[in-house]
Amino acid sequence: xxxxxxxxxxxxxxxxxxxxxxxxxxxxxxxxxxxxxxxxxxxxxxxxxxxxxxxxxxxxxxxxxxxxxxxxxxxxxxxxxxxxxxxxxxxxxxxxxxxxxxxxxxxxxxxxxxxxxxxxxxxxxxxxxxxxxxxxxxxxxxxxxxxxxxxxxxxxxxxxxxxxxxxxxxxxxxxxxxxxxxxxxxxxxxxxxxxxxxxxxxxxxxxxxxxxxxxxxxxxxxxxxxxxxxxxxxxxxxxxxxxxxxxxxxxxxxxxxxxxxxxxxxxxxx
Length: 270
Prior knowledge:
By secondary structure, the protein is mainly α. It is 77% helix and 0% strand.
């Protein structure tokens, strides 16, 4: 970067703060640089990633677009733009950015993974599966790719293959609570309630205050006809997040056999 010593100091300061997770301070440093030299696409890009880490996605998108107006093929800015668009729910546009990223950097595993997630969001499951498989070709130990692959396989109505992918996920990272939870969900869908409950128990060992696992356990026990345990575990879920799990339970057909019980009516009416 061709800029004066003061700008270099602010840029370095911003990068140090970014590396420490102090994103507000990093943005302030980048803004100092850009106030005097607004054509530095690397600074606009780093500023965009700092904003993304603060969940300020519209501002992040504007930063990445500013970087790309200066250097249209800067890979980090293209990728960052795609991430911001995906976070904003604009999956078609996000996919366009990830595709451009991969055209310039075809071996970038994170861009390939994000491409897969965007395709999945667009219900283009076969293409998403191909993206995750490409990630796993280069890094077979990427447990997040195995996990995302399992969700796509479930959407393709291939639960047994989804379970195999989840087993790969958990062999690599046995403490991945959300993979245990999703494994239980797939097993519930296939009618294997006891195995599902065992998976939810594993999830709760990894993360005891995990309302999804308590809620899913309650559903399994309701399906097994065990009213008392179903109500007990549903109460645990509701205690952790009352508005969400009351709303879910009210519309959940799995709790239909319990509808007439006073305990369920009391739980849902508080």
